[in-house]
Amino acid sequence: MTITNEDNIELMSRYKDNYFDYAITDPPYNLNFKYNKYKDNLSEKEYKDWCCKWFLELHRICEKGIFISCGINNLGLWHKIKKPKWVLCWHKPAAMGRSKVGFCNWEPILFYGKVSKQGVDVIKAPIIPDPTMDFHSCPKPVKWAEGILHNFCKNGDKIIDIFLGSGSTAIACHNLGYDLTACELDKEYYEAAMKRIEQHKAQQRLF
Prior knowledge:
Layout: E1 2-4, H1 8-13, E2 20-25, E3 34-35, E4 38-39, H2 44-61, E5 62-69, H3 75-81, E6 86-91, E7 97-99, E8 102-104, E9 106-113, E10 122-124, H4 142-152, E11 158-161, H5 168-176, E12 179-183, H6 187-206
Parallel strand pairs: 1-12, 2-5, 2-11, 6-10, 11-12
Antiparallel strand pairs: 3-4, 5-9, 6-9, 7-8
Helix pairs in contact: 4-5, 5-6
């Protein structure tokens, strides 16, 4: 497992074409959330241009496929960037987020490419309070990443996450035995995520 504190374009530029098998990543949704020092409030054009930039590089280095948590509001924008092969459902039972019709209990996961094995297109991962993730504004549950890995990847696949965030993908890869390369631009998030990951590993060793 290799995790660095740097810009994702810099990380990806060091790898040759098709070096990784899959990307599993969760970029900011551009919904004016506070992500420490990052301002998540770009214009639609700025956000689209930014997504195009890192997606193009991610597409270059991933041989099999890319899984992106994009947010419901960005589905149309991402179809303009590149139409996904499929849209998976992240089912988050009993979630309290609001939607145009009441409460939102799901989010899309865009998939580009081909799968190593066939699985169901619904990933069930409840949002459960976890104090080890409190440092992050919008963390994903570990089961979110584990569901993707379990359903569609196989042993030996190399994984990359270019938005490490709270570190959930790293913990999922550790739990299921996948080789992960990841990066996080914000130093405070990086340090907090690394602490969370190491504490998880130590707890597993203890038991």
